[in-house]
Every structure is written in structure tokens, then in C-alpha cells.
Write a structure and sequence with these properties.
Elements: E1 3-6, H1 7-11, H2 18-27, E2 32-37, H3 46-55, E3 59-65, H4 76-93, E4 97-100, H5 110-130, E5 134-138, H6 148-155, E6 162-167, H7 168-173, H8 178-185, E7 189-194, H9 211-220, E8 227-229, H10 237-255
Parallel strand pairs: 1-2, 1-8, 2-3, 3-4, 4-5, 5-6, 6-7, 7-8
Helix pairs in contact: 4-5, 8-9, 9-10
């Protein structure tokens, strides 16, 4: 089980480009990255970036889709075209998981956004399955899909190519139990995100997440993927990520995965 740095929170920052993100992951001892599918990060020409990541001894555990158009009415063609390109890039990066955030557009009813997302999944899940990829949608309060029960029921009709990104912060802040959520979702989880209950460094002061219970429940229910550290970067990102990686690896050992 690999521990990865999130490239959305730790990469898409002023003054930090692909080289700096790769160097950060190496410096903190990560196994890989959640790599942004973004023009500035090789979306249009992924081969050189993929070589640089591999040369650094890192893996791309998931590819994070941008922009966030999966549930936006009127953007179906743009999203499907972008995702088709992302599927090709995923082959170059040798990653199975494409991570999508189904943002709920302003002034759009949740039911309408869900209908758009369902239509996009219906159109794209077969191509993703044929390519051996998983489209993993993050559920959170205020998004197009919000709670784990709703999210699991939403993706179920689209087969194994439709999955869910389970983030500890989003689950706990809506009031749900981490272990119960992981048990219910199990093999429908595309990728796990570790983040403090305060959206800060996992294990730091005030964090209420029981990561071991969460991971143990997910694995017992069939999850066999990786963990991405996604949280608000503090001023000392290197020191924070080193601590978060050490905590996550200790959790992995506690659960008995090494």
C-alpha cells in the first residue's frame, strides 16, 4: 500500500510547478503522487512528466481531473472530451485511478447535477472499463453526491469502473462514522484520502480521525488500493508531510498490511 502526496493541495500553488512537486514528494519520502491533470502539469504532453516521475522513483497513484465539469449542465461534451484525453494520459502515467470532484454548480439543483453526472458516467464508464481504469468520484457535503450511503447507491449501476474517493475529513465533518462508511463502501472505493478532521495535518492537535479503524474496515471490506495525503498545506509543508507519512505508515503497520 503506497502513501502519496496530493498534487492538488501541495502542487497547484504559486511558484510550484511539476519539478517542485516531484522534488517535494521525494524530499518527504512519499511513494507517489495524486498528479493533477492540468495544462501546467503535462496534461497536453504527459510523456516527459511521466519519465521524470518514474526517474524519481515515484508512482502516480491517481490522476486528478481538472477542470471540475463532471456535473455541470451544458458542459457534457467538454467533460467527455477532457476525460477521453485523461484516459490516454492515465496509460502514460501507468495509473489506474482517475479522481474526479463532482462540484455542485451554483444555482443548479442537486437532482439536475446528479442527472448530468449519471449521463456522463453512463457514456464514459464502458470506455474506462475497457482501458482498465476506474473513475473515482469524491463525495462531500455540498457536492453533487454528499454522504457515503447516497454515493454508494449512485455509482452502483455503472459497474466497477465507477468508484468513490473516500476522504476522512469529508466523512467525519458531515457526522458519519469513518469505520461504518468504509465498511459500507469497501470495494467501491477507488482511492482513500487521509486528512485531519480539521482539514489539517493528520494526527495533529485537534484531529479526531481514527485512521486505523477507517483503514482496517476498508481493507476488510475489499479495498486494496493506496492512500493520498490531502490536507491544507501548512507553512512547513516538508516537516508536516514527513510526520503525516510516518503516521500513515504506522497505521498501515497497525492494520497489518506490511
Amino acid at each position: 500500500m503506497r502513501v502519496a502526496v496530493d498534487g492538488i493541495y501541495f502542487g497547484l500553488l504559486p511558484g510550484r510547478g511539476p519539478e517542485e512537486l516531484i522534488r517535494l514528494a521525494v524530499d518527504v519520502g512519499a511513494d507517489g503522487l495524486n498528479w493533477p491533470y492540468h495544462a501546467d502539469y503535462g496534461a497536453d504532453n504527459p510523456e516527459p512528466i511521466a519519465r521524470a516521475i518514474a526517474d524519481a522513483g515515484l508512482a502516480v497513484v491517481s490522476l486528478a481531473m481538472t477542470p471540475h465539469l463532471s456535473a455541470v449542465p451544458g458542459s457534457e461534451a467538454a467533460f467527455r472530451e477532457s476525460l477521453a484525453r485523461c484516459l490516454s494520459a492515465a496509460a502514460v502515467f501507468n495509473t489506474r485511478v482517475i479522481d474526479c470532484w463532482p462540484a455542485l454548480p451554483k444555482d443548479v439543483a442537486k437532482e439536475q447535477a446528479q442527472a448530468v453526472l449519471a449521463a456522463n458516467l453512463d457514456a464514459l464508464a464502458p470506455a474506462a472499463a475497457a482501458a482498465g481504469r476506474v473513475l473515482s468520484f469524491e463525495f462531500e457535503p455540498g457536492a453533487t453526491i454528499e454522504r457515503y450511503g447516497e454515493a454508494g447507491a449512485f455509482v452502483a449501476p455503472f459497474g466497477p469502473a465507477a468508484a468513490l474517493t473516500a476522504d476522512t475529513y469529508h466523512i467525519i465533518r458531515i457526522g458519519d462514522d469513518l469505520a461504518q462508511a468504509a465498511t459500507a463502501l469497501g470495494p467501491t472505493i477507488g482511492i482513500l484520502h487521509f486528512s485531519g478532521s480539521h482539514r489539517g495535518e493528520p494526527g495533529s492537535e485537534g484531529d479526531r480521525c481514527d485512521y486505523a479503524a477507517f483503514l482496517r474496515a476498508a481493507c476488510r471490506a475489499g479495498y486494496a488500493g493506496d492512500i493520498v495525503l490531502q490536507y491544507e498545506p501548512p507553512e512547513d509543508a516538508v516537516g508536516s508531510l514527513k510526520r503525516a507519512i510516518a503516521l500513515t505508515r504506522e497505521v498501515i503497520r497497525e492494520v497489518g498490511l506490511t
